[in-house]
Specification:
Rossmann fold; Nucleotidyltransferase, domain 5; 2 domains; eight-stranded mixed sheet; 16 strands
């Protein structure tokens, strides 16, 4: 390994970071002043704020602020992934101030892994604005009280900060929501609360910036997985989630300066090769991959299911056969933050189609969702649903399901081990197909097992992220294998018989 001084002497100080990200959602058409507000934002940043934007920062703004024909932003949600110390805060300062002073945003909300971190970004944004006399005249005196900091414009616009709590943003509406370090969202609570603030405004955006996540970064992994799947399958025309990721490819040589340039777009501008090499020499390989190459590093502990067995079973065109019985199962995450409905049905070729057909926050929506499909005469749902009988978060829904007219087939005791083991065997035997859903893929990666005698079953609490999607489809497969009981009719039954 060469030292940082050797790296500098060998001419690596001339290495430049990549302007274009390795992974990104492509634009719908050529980006011009008519199709992207990024040009206006860049002009404001450079001429009014006197900021020096790097090539990659301009590229990001041009693509993230792509416009629809009606002038609204194409992307309702934007995910920016880049290695540390590459200047993502500079982008955010420019974006927030442009939205407030030029685009007439009424409310900007910022949040981070701690209130202090969110307030640090807020302070940088306010300070940047106060340096420009013309902008300072349009501002009220900023409120710098810890825990209640607020920047207000005389036109009515404001920039406030929130914490990552389950009631964050309640009652508020935002034109721009900025979430810093999305990798720190270990549950869906804050995301569910904060993301709802941007539902109403026509030109609202949620912009998330982060370094690479880990197995616990459930929100980041889900959003990135969805966007990455859309990119890889060339199905981005109608998406409203944009991914822009400067990262090194999986399995790369971490000493390759070419891949370092992919993950560090500021290399050769504000980040020197010597500084990056110094980090290489003082960090573990996993630490360098995560922090400096923006790569997600899997934990050493592996799940019960080998993902290499699961991945080849993906079939984006998979669907159930006509007039086939559909088995339905419901499961709830260990922290009760999210509920998933899984289905399994036979395909025309005899293989099993598995899919998570619904996944939302909380549990209140589940029974109405199922009843609505039961009441639909053309529905595929026959009213039978399986849930774990006792000892699981979903067990509390069983009685209410029955009361709502659903036929609950309990899965408990030895059946839990049977459902997990049989699904495991089907993966090994390659007799199932799935559509590559990110939340199901993540559950398969994360699933840990808990033993019960000589058998085992999936362990919700012991798994590093939510595996309820996997449990839902595995129990649906178990239900499909159970016989459907038909009611016995008495030989004496007669609809015309009347007892006097």
């Amino acid at each position: 390994m060469r030292s940082s001084m050797t790296a500098a002497r060998s001419g690596l100080s001339d290495v430049k970071g990549c302007t274009e990200p390795r992974l990104f959602t492509p634009p719908l058409r050529e980006l011009t002043t008519r199709t992207s507000a990024g040009f206006e934002c860049i002009r404001f940043a450079e001429t009014v704020l006197r900021m020096t934007l790097l090539p990659w920062q301009k590229w990001f703004l041009l693509h993230a602020l792509e416009l629809n024909e009606d002038g609204t932003f194409r992307f309702k949600r934007v995910l920016l992934l880049v290695s540390r110390q590459n200047g993502k805060t500079t982008i955010i300062k420019a974006l927030i101030l442009w939205r407030l002073f030029v685009d007439a945003a009424q409310t900007v909300i910022g949040a981070a892994q701690s209130l202090g971190d969110a307030e640090d970004v807020w302070e940088e944004v306010v300070t940047q604005a106060e340096r420009v006399p013309a902008l300072k005249k349009r501002m009220h005196k900023p409120k710098r009280v810890n825990g209640a900091k607020a920047m207000r414009l005389r036109s009515g616009g404001r920039y406030i900060v929130e914490t990552l709590e389950r009631d964050a943003g309640r009652g508020k509406t935002a034109d721009l929501l900025f979430l810093d370090e999305l990798r720190e969202h270990k549950s869906w609570d804050a995301w569910n609360a904060l993301s709802s603030t941007t539902l109403v405004p026509a030109r609202a955006q949620t912009v998330c910036a982060s370094n690479a996540g880990d197995v616990h970064s459930v929100v980041l992994r889900d959003l990135r997985g969805r966007a990455k799947t859309a990119i890889e399958t060339a199905r981005t025309d109608e998406v409203t989630l944009g991914l822009f990721e400067w990262s090194a490819p999986d399995g790369c040589d971490i000493d390759d300066w070419g891949v370092r340039a992919q993950a560090n777009p500021s290399l050769g501008h504000t980040l020197t090769a010597a500084a990056l090499q110094a980090d290489r020499e003082t960090k573990t390989e996993n630490g360098f991959r995560t922090e400096n190459l923006c790569q997600e590093v899997e934990q050493i502990q592996t799940g019960i299911i080998d993902f290499e067995d699961w991945a080849p079973l993906q079939d984006m065109e998979s669907e159930r056969g006509p007039d086939t019985r559909v088995a339905v199962a419901v499961d709830v995450s260990w922290d009760r933050s999210r509920t998933h409905i899984g289905i399994v049905a036979e395909r025309p070729d005899g293989l099993l189609h598995v899919e998570v057909v619904a996944s939302r926050a909380g549990t209140a929506w589940v029974i109405p969702w199922l009843v609505e499909r039961l009441d639909n005469e053309d529905s595929w749902f026959d009213g039978r649903v399986t849930v774990q009988e006792r000892g699981a978060p979903v067990s509390s829904l069983s009685a209410d399901m029955t009361e709502a007219g659903l036929t609950v087939v309990p899965c408990g005791g030895a059946d839990l081990a049977k459902s997990a083991g049989a699904f495991f065997d089907r993966i090994r035997q390659q007799t199932i197909r799935h559509r590559g859903q990110p939340l199901l893929d993540e559950a398969v990666r994360a699933a840990r097992a808990r033993s019960a005698g000589d058998a085992w079953f999936f362990d919700r609490k012991g798994s590093p992220s939510d595996i309820a999607p996997l449990i839902a489809v595995s129990e649906a497969a178990w239900l499909l294998a159970q016989p459907v009981e038909t009611p016995r009719i008495s030989a004496y039954e007669n609809t015309d018989f009347v007892m006097l």
